[in-house]
Amino acid sequence: MNQSDMILIINDTILNFKKEIKQPVIMFIEQQRFSKLLDLMELKKHLHLTPCFVAEMKGGNIIYYCEEIIQKLINDFSKEKQKIFLEAITLHELFHIWNKIPINDAEEAIASELIVHEEIKKIYPKENKILNEFQQKINKLPKNH
After folding, report:
1. Beta strands at 52-57 and 25-28: parallel, antiparallel or unpaired
2. Structure confidence at residue 145 (pLDDT)
3. Torsion sign over Cα 31, 66, 122, 79
4. What are the angstrom distances between the C-alpha of 112 and each of 9, 35, 59, 145?
5. Residue 79 confidence (pLDDT)
6. Which of 12, 18, 97, 109 has the most CB atoms at less than 10 Å from its CB?
7. Rounded to an integer, what distance in angstroms lies between the CA atom of residue 74 and that of residue 12?
8. How far is Cα 45 from Cα 43, in angstroms, rounded to an integer?
9. Percent of the chain residues topping a pLDDT of 70
10. Integer Cα distance of 103 and 74 in angstroms
11. Looking at the domain that runs over 3-139, which CATH code has it been given?
12. What CA–CA distances, in Å, run from 37 to 9, 29, 50, 52, 98?
């Protein structure tokens, strides 16, 4: 899947989101810059397992995507599963935008993730299934990975 295909899927997902939000800006950035932004935001995640994240800026929200990371994560998925995965990770970020939960520490971050997980589970079961498969894949990785 190329970036143009990804942008179409992301924009369709945003337009069909079932909650009222101000449309975020979508940006694809290369992995080195993506990694630096994650560090600046103090998002303590495994870079190779983080395909996107949302940042709240003065002018609105930006969802940053890293095509390199996405490609590595979906390379063994069918075309349909790739599409659903991209929809699912976008929905995940859209729920963070909709919830507007301020995150000041790890405990609040975990609580926010749990809320988003429950919302996706209720409203988007197909996308939730893909996210659960992805999470199971992550859970099987060695802890120091």
Report:
1. unpaired
2. 46
3. negative
4. 25, 22, 23, 24
5. 95
6. 97
7. 19
8. 6
9. 92
10. 29
11. 3.40.390
12. 24, 10, 12, 11, 22
Predicted local confidence at residue 16, as pLDDT: 96
Q: Give the pair of three-digit tokens for residue 136.
A: 């199971």
User: What percent of the chain is modeled with pLDDT above 90?
Assistant: 64
Tokens of residue 89, six digits: 């990770």
For the chain, what is the mean pLDDT? 89
Q: How many C-alpha atoms does 24 have within 13 Å on its Cβ side?
A: 26
HEC readout, the chain = CCHHHHHHHHHHHHHCCCCCCCCCEEEECCHHHHHHHHHHCCCCCCHHHCCEEEEEECCEEEEEECHHHHHHHHCCCCHHHHHHHHHHHHHHHHHHHHHCCCCCCHHHHHHHHHHHHHHHHHHCHHHHHHHHHHHHHHHCCCCCC
104 pLDDT above the threshold of 90: no
Length of the chain (residues): 145
